[in-house]
Amino acid sequence: MFNNKEILAIIPARGGSKSIPKKNIKLLGDKPLIAYTIKEALKSKYIDRVIVSTDDKEIANIAKNYNAEVPFLRPKNLAKDTSSSLSVILHALEYLEREENYYPDIIVFLQPTSPFRKAKHIDEGIEKIESCDAVVGVSEVKEHPYFMMQKKGEFLKPYLKIENRPLRRQDLPKLYHDNASLFITKRRYYDSAKDLDPVAPIFNGRVKAVMMDDMSSIDINTQLDFMLAEIILKNKENEG
Fold first, then answer.
1. 166 within a domain of the structure (yes/no)
2. β-sheet bridge partners, residue 136
3. Total domains present in the chain
4. Pick from 150, 106, 156, 111: which is nearest to 131 by CA?
5. How are beta strands 149-152 and 31-32 bridged, if at all?
6. Tens digits of per-residue pLDDT, 50-79?
7. How far apart, in whole angstroms, are the C-alpha atoms of residue 15 and residue 148?
8. Is 190 a domain residue?
9. What is the CATH number of the domain that holds 120?
């Protein structure tokens, strides 16, 4: 709990993954990928329950082995490539309210594809949620939009029309992107959220950030991402 608020963490982990087969339980080092997120969520000073939402019995069993709760198997129609994160959250909250009369105050949504996100990032976000609508994990952009191009017929044109465009990168304004590692909202947001809404009110609310470094921000979606995570993990083990 934090300030007497009940806090629920939801970790989504569907069985079907086309880019990396069985991605959520693929071994990264000596543990399945999802285990890193479960372990950090359980380390949080504030989270009261850690639930994994999955449609896959193998993932469910592995999640339970790492001490997460799996109170239901997610319906297959909510485990497609096109299924939104919001629909997954709404299903979990509706189930818990209907079956357990459980209505937490704060929801922490943690993608299992961010293995290097730490409990300290989660706790920092929880500490900020009281004074805003949502908290998200962010990192500084590497490819600045001031330099981005778009195709117009056969030719490239600047994507943004900017007067007095800085020529040196150190003169560019600092910009940040959502790194998909952390979404924290108050439970009551989901009472009125629609399926087409973002998972958190990022673009139309008061949103605060948890600033994260490049390593903590790694989001595994491709084989190349996974290879990079393996290299980082091996280096961390050698250092430690």
1. no
2. 183, 209
3. 1
4. 106
5. unpaired
6. 999 999 999 999 999 999 999 999 998 888
7. 36
8. yes
9. 3.90.550.10
pLDDT in tens, 16-49: 887 888 999 999 999 999 999 999 999 999 999 9
Measured distance CA(38)–CA(61) in Å, rounded = 13
φ, ψ for residue 139, nearest 5 deg: -140, 160
Task: Kindly list the strands in the beta sheet with 176-186, ordered across the sheet, starting from the edge strand earlier in the chain.
Answer: 49-53, 7-12, 106-109, 176-186, 134-140, 207-211
Name which of 213, 191, 189, 45 is nearest 127 in CA terms.
Answer: 45
Q: Do the domain assignments include residue 25?
A: yes
Phi, psi dihedrals of residue 216, rounded to the nearest 5°: -65, -25
Evaluate whether residue 158 is within a structural domain.
no
| Three-state SS annotation for the chain | CECCECEEEEEECCCCCCCCCCHHHCEECCEEHHHHHHHHHHHCCCCCEEEEEECCHHHHHHHHHCCCECCCECCHHHCCCCCCHHHHHHHHHHHHHHHHCCCCCEEEECCCCCCCCCHHHHHHHHHHHHHCCEEEEEEECCCCHHHCEEEECCEEEECCCCCCCCCCHHHCCCCEEEEEEEEEEECCHHHHCCCCCCCCCCCCCCEEEEECCCCCCCCCCCHHHHHHHHHHHHHHHHHC
Phi and psi torsions of 149, nearest 5°: -125, 160
Give the domain range for residue 180: 7-139+175-239
The residue behind tokens 């280096």 is: 235
Output b/e per residue, 85-121; b: 16+ Cβ within 10 A: bbbbbbbbbebbeeeeeeebbbbbbbbbbbbbbbbeb
pTM of this prediction?
0.91
